[in-house]
Amino acid sequence: DIQMTQSPSSLSASVGDRVTITCRASRSIDSYVNWYQQKLGKAPKLLISAASSLQSGVPSRFSGSGSGTDFTLTISSLQPEDFATYYCQQSHIIPRTFGQGTKVEIK
Amino acid sequence: EVQLVESGGGLVQPGGSLRLSCAASGFTFSTYWMSWVRQAPGKGLEWVANIKQDGSEKNYVDSVKGRFTISRDNAKNSLYLQMNSLRAEDTAVYYCARENGYCSGPRCYFYFDFWGQGTLVTVSS
Q1: CB B21 within 8 A of CB B9
Q2: What average pLDDT does chain B have?
Q3: Which of A81, A103, B89, B110 is 20 to 30 Å from the Cα of A87, by its Cα?
Q4: Cis previous bond, A8, omega within 30
């Protein structure tokens, strides 16, 4: 199985801050990474597929990058509605695996 | 509008069984892979199983192999998860998710683009 390791596990930030979340795969997965946002008590929402492809309707302040084993989700200017938990997920092989999540909290 | 609505969750004793259902609408169900993803209380997401469009291929995470069975009925636009020999560690919210994808040259990218609201399964005596 491919292990996905996110860092940090949590972070505190202020509205307007630039936030970066990293995800490392246990072996090379090309660009087969997706990013999801999950708010408390809600289902996850797809933000980015194929490492950097922004989903329709997702604000442009979200961006993704990376290839191989190291990936990044960036929020360029944090908004109040962005406080949530973010997960990376690899789609290179079965079983699909997720990172452990990064909780973004208000400072 | 794409909708996925899970049902069938509840409280079950260890060793018991439960069948989850997911009713799909707003898209051509028979043309998509479908998955079950679960989330234990306060924990992260774990993919459980997926099934090909015509049901001919099924995949499972190791921890549920031999105990869980994924199936679908395309005539009813429904996805199912039969869970047997349930354990305390199976306690989670279970989501059904549509697995979408596209190919760019030799690479095919898959992702979960729509999710249901989830149904809670609690395994406890």
Answers
A1: no
A2: 97
A3: B89
A4: yes
